[in-house]
Amino acid sequence: MKCRQNWSSTCELELNKQIIREYEASLAYHVLANYFNRDDVGIKKLVKFYNKASMEEREHANKLMEYQNMRGGIVELNDLKITKIKLEKCNDILESLKIALQLEKSINGKLLELHQVADEQNDPQFADYLEGEFLNEQVESISEISKSISMIERFDGDQHAIWNFIERMD
To answer: What is the pTM of this model?
Structure first.
């Protein structure tokens, strides 16, 4: 690649792994959206919430692929896995948010590891890109989902309160 400069094979490999993780998170959110869109569940606000989250993760994957190409790397999408998610109706809202929180924490942790790889490979441009495009957004997502979980837990199973809270979600 003509544009390749200071782009290590280690950064290239690890970035491809992150692209796959972002797609896997997107698919997990898509599974959650479709669960809440079932005719026996039907919570449209959560369909919208999880579809938005799915698209955000896919946009992250797209940004990372663009960056890989800009640096002269080759995008390789191997071993994409779909997470199986099983929710019980009696606690599906809270459990889905806990799954979302774990997804966001996992992605954040892997982005932090990727940032460390950039540092170890002496690639300040890559480290700066990760900081500017992804890390703050991950912290914000983790915080917002955590607050939603805390609110629902405070309702102590009061379905009316939970419903009202979900209806106010963006």
So the answer is: 0.93
